[in-house]
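The freezer alarm interrupted the setup, so I double-checked each line after restarting. Inputs confirmed:
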Amino acid sequence: MGAYIVRRLLQSLIVILGVIVITFIISRVIGDPVALLLPPEASPEQRAYLTKDLGLDRPLYIQLVVYVAKVMKGDFGHSFRHQESAMKLVFERLPASLYLSFVAVLLAIGVAIPLGIISAIKRGTIIDRIGMTIALFGQSIPAFWAGIMLIFIFAVQLHWLPPSGYGGFKYVILPATTLAFFVSAATARLTRSNVLDALDMDYVRYARLKGVPEFVVITRHVIRNTFVTIFNIVALQLGLVIGGAVITEFIFSWPGIGRLSLESIYSRDYPVIQATVVVAALIFVVINLLVDIVYIATDPRVKRN
Amino acid sequence: MKSPEDSRGSQQRLKLRKLFRRIPKGAASIILILLLCAVFSPWLAPHNPIEQNLGAALKPPFWQGGGTMDHLLGTDNLGRDILSRIIYGARISVIVGFVGVILAGAVGTLLGVIAGYFGGKIDAVIMRLTDIMLSLPFILVGIAIIGAIGPSLTNVVIVLGITQWVGYTRIIRFEAMSLSRSEFIEMAVISGCRWWRILLVHILPNVLNSAVVLATLDVGKMIIIEAAFSFLGLGVKPPTATWGAMLADGRLYMTVAWWIVTFPGLAIFATVLAGNLIGDWLRDELDPRHQLKA
Amino acid sequence: MKKYLLAIVIVCFLIPGLVLGAPKGKLVIAQGTELTSLDPALHGTTSEFNYDHAVFDKLYLFDVDGNPVPRVAVSHKIINPTTWEFKLRKGIKFHNGDPVTAADVKFSVEHYLDPKTKAPLASFYKIVKEIKAVDEHTIQVTTDKPDPLLQKRFAFSIFILPSKYIKEKGYDTFLKRPIGCGPFKFVEWVRADRLVLEAYEDYWAGSPLIKTVVFRAIPEDTTRLAELQTGMADIILNIPPFLVNQVKGQPGIDVQSVPSGRVILLYINTLAPGSLQDKRVRQALNYAVDKKTIIDKVLMGSGFQMAINIPPYDFGYDPTLKPYPYDPEKAKKLLAEAGYKDLKLVLNSPSGRYVMDKQVAEAIAGMYEKAGIKVDFRMREWGDYVKDLFGKKLVDTGLIGSGLVMYDADGRLSLYFLRDSVFCYYVNAEIEKWILEARVSMDEKKRKELYSKISKKIFEEAPFVFLYQQQDHWGVSKKVKGFQARGDEQFFLYRVSVEK
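Predicted 3D structure, all chains:
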């Protein structure tokens, strides 16, 4: 097990490096930050000065080497737009994204897991149909649409909640719900299929034969045994949500790294693009690693060579 | 006197008939309508979807005051007929959904099978590749590719294929792995079967079930991603009508012209829902455990 | 007795304060983009200027008609064509109590000009050769060549920075806790969320009437509007034209509509060999656009037809020119004459950069199709578009907007017609000569004549497809009193008040 962890950690480093290099190349191909930083009236001398100052006048491979060398030392460079170090900007926004993601996943779990369990228990009945359709609802509408509709209904029409902003419950609930829509759909359905599998297991049938009340069967045996798989599912969703809540953060003006990443891409702020991607990749890779470790530790069917 | 082959044949026919009876009717009919719209749009649509008529802009659907029978579902801000745009939009959704899914599915399944069968270093490389793909923000990849080769339908599908294959690989890999350890495959290896034959003939067909299920579930996702691209300004280029673009462009008009966004939204919702229902049903059907029960 | 006198004097000072009221209330302004730094020298867009106007002051500012109004400067004298002298107002203080002196003005100008600062607007001031502090309240500016616009340049930008504070505490401290001599003091900045300011009651023009000002950055249009509609934001800019009536109808909200200084037009690349190098083709492109319908139907009436690219706000505007009429037959005739009956054209357009930009471009594409021109419509992401635009790689035509800079035609003309400009896609030696001549002439009448000549030539040569001048719609909560919308997308808050 230990050797496996070490190997995966090394591989994760390679993944991050790969992400850095690919992002680096892609960003430099797609545009000219100097053109976006200066007004059209700026003189050629100004443009040349800025290009040199940002290090963009050197050939691509030299820029890459210099960048990677700096990253090894932990220096992700300075934002082109903001007067701040790129990593500092990301870390400033990270708590907001984590906060939003956790609330979203909690919401999703709170709704989706009971929904999945009930649907599994009542398999084939109308309750199952309804439950799964509700869950599917979340996957059937685009996130930006859901967000805008929520703002329209709960803020503009009902005046119950503020349309956007950062803060406590009343600010986070709408964006978290928007995010939760998608997460809960997947979670509910995966929960249902896993519970179905568990219900088929011999130990459940045995418990029933023994006369154990159904309720205890459900809570003690089934849930406990599906916990691991559900943990995997949730963890994976969390990883995706943290990095990917881009559109939701944009619509609700939530100051997280998703919005930072979107704005840095639009303004070709290379250092910040790189920094956000690296941090999102790190989070994702770590969560992945944890999930895989838990999987291996608990599932005897999967053996590594 | 019926021969064993005959009865097997009729048994299979019986199975197929039972299968069709069990298809979720509602979902199937939605998909059917979608395909019909996509194929027969020039005949079904009452108007040219890209023809502007600024004088008839923002007309409501026929049952509201100010609406006409000429434009059943109303017009958008440039006077284009909403119903026609939805019918033609089905084309885009079908292409994006099906072709995108085939592209992503093919790549993802292939990689998953390779990773699962060979294991070891190859598996590690492919898995880390999926990690990299998942970490790259799809917007960045989208801007890069579409910026480089232009915003066309083909290119949007390419972007979808490039970014969405990862969803298949993990799951297919897992299945391929357990299949590879089965006695059956071990037998094949012992009896001298070449690796590519094993992959193509023995493993691939068996993971196809899962792949198909995943694919049908993904169709909806592709359509939604296309909508997100349109929202970000990267979508299929105007004036081509896509449901996603109609949603994205129409959102500002929501409060004065609700029909511009509601109908494409319903279309997306219905299609994705239908795709998911069929995918779920397929999964239940193809699950060997449930077949045993029946 | 003296004690009573003192008490009476004190009360006399207090009463006006009690009557007028201390600054009160909170004003929330929602803009589309966030600030990236707190140094005004690093700002180049109007939404950033709005923060600058609150915390800092300039030598002059523009009134709604584009006339420079004295602020930190009280008067100026032109000693010779290349030397100006400005007298500064006495008694102005920075937020920390330091007096505003000529040294600060000199420091500020030099800060903007220093290449290390990387001020985006530096090129507007490169005409300044030297700036001298003659005495505590007088500065002398020497320019490279005669510059009729110097006073306007100081109304456009150069916010006065506290030289002593920056020298003592360091630039980095200034970036974190900026101080200026404007009506509001900096309180806090939570990046991407909000910027909070509070009233500076010792402001030289009198205490502002609002206690707290909050700037919020809300990038999504529908969300920003929702903020206004729910009363969470008090001022927003750019209400979409088709929503204006609906917003006006809402209780508690007002809409102020002003002609904008922003002009929308279609760029034509005449540098690449092809059909667009023929004047007749370009004129045809102008005749083929039904500007009235675009304004009435796509913009719901929010726009004004333009003859060329200079709006009435700019000095040098020629009111005698009338816009190209809509004449698709004439367009077809001109195209046939030039030998391009089946013209194929690429039309680029950004999406969401300007109000209804994509929709206008789509409408134009439709009109061109009706005139027999085959249009390849390309919607471009802004960063991608700009890369082409500034690299002289724009293919055929593109929708572009140009904003108000110094209320002077020189800005708009130099940008487009001087061959050095990255934006120049049309070269005409005669026009260039006239522009450079008008630029260094201190004679207003002569400048006007030159601009009139240039305008007529531009109209005839049709280097662009001229479209319209925008109309801006500001959404203002009825709680807000004294707010005045301007055509340059900026606002000033020191006479604005908020009631409960």
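Quick read of the result. The two ends of chain C are 42 Å apart (CA to CA).
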